[in-house]
Design goal:
The protein has a 6-stranded parallel sheet with strand order 2-1-3-4-5-6. By secondary structure, it is α/β, with parallel strands linked by helices. The chain has a single domain, classed as Rossmann fold. The C terminus is likely disordered. It contains 11 helices and 6 strands. Helix 3 crosses helix 4 and helix 3 runs antiparallel to helix 6. The radius of gyration is 17 Å and the shape is globular.
């Protein structure tokens, strides 16, 4: 009987996508790995926060679902929020930033001006802008149309979140900056990015410890087996040197 501790992953979705997205990885996990996929407040069936922009309220709401003995995996906005919660909750075994850097806007990626235009469009037409975003983020996948069909099969046609929560999420994408937090993080931080992610600047993609080939912003959809394998390695040994771990995922 093994005395090894249970390996735990907590998977956190990004803007406009609830936790059903992670079903794309079903069937790709190794034995002995405990995987949780909690929704953020305001997503799925979960009640929204009274102030969806409050990080303190978010930390209180998520405290029981972000244990310190797990590896937190935040995709896109989920990574930005998970990084921000490092000062508000006990640190995890490791933090994985999937498709996200220390901040979101970047002059060579999605600029502040482009994000401001997107926020303005969302205020005019939340439903149409959300649908546009889902297609836009898939632009770097090997087959965007196939990826879009898979995404819709998982999420349907609804936004999966209330409008106030989505608007607050766009504000957080524009304003949150984790550079200072992650300069001296309380836990190991692993960065994963698709090699063709259209939402990340080239410099951010190149800095990633794991660069997933034949993937864009949604490797959950286009490379589920490779992504699950990478996350399982991190969960098994979150404190090991990143370069050593990353080399196992490049073949």
């Amino acid at each position: 009987m093994s005395d090894s501790p249970t390996r735990k992953l907590v998977l956190l979705s990004g803007w406009g996508c609830d936790a059903r997205l992670w079903r794309a990885l079903d069937g790709h996990w190794p034995d002995g790995l405990e995987v949780a996929t909690p929704d953020w407040p305001g997503y799925g069936e979960r009640e929204a926060l009274g102030d969806p922009a409050s990080l303190d309220a978010l930390a209180e709401a998520m405290a029981s679902e972000l244990p310190s003995d797990a590896v937190w995996v935040g995709w896109s906005l989920g990574g930005l929020l998970a990084g921000a919660l490092l000062d508000r909750l006990p640190a995890p075994r490791a933090l994985v930033l999937l498709g996200m850097g220390e901040r979101f806007p970047h002059p060579e990626g999605v600029s502040r001006a482009a994000l401001a235009q997107f926020r303005q469009a969302f205020r005019r037409d939340p439903t149409g802008t959300h649908a546009h975003f889902l297609r836009w983020q898939l632009g770097g996948e090997p087959s965007p149309r196939v990826a879009h069909r898979r995404l819709r099969a998982l999420l349907g046609d609804e936004a999966g979140a209330d409008t106030a929560t989505l608007a607050a999420g766009l504000a957080q994408l524009a304003e949150l900056d984790n550079a200072e937090r992650l300069a001296s993080p309380p836990c190991p931080v692993h960065r994963l990015a698709g090699e063709a992610d259209p939402l990340l600047a080239p410099a951010v993609r190149e800095r990633a410890d794991w660069r997933l080939p034949e993937a864009g912003h949604c490797p959950l959809i286009s490379q589920p087996a490779r992504l699950a394998r990478a996350l399982a390695v991190i969960a098994a040994a979150p404190a090991r040197p990143l370069a050593d771990a990353a080399s196992e995922n490049t073949t």
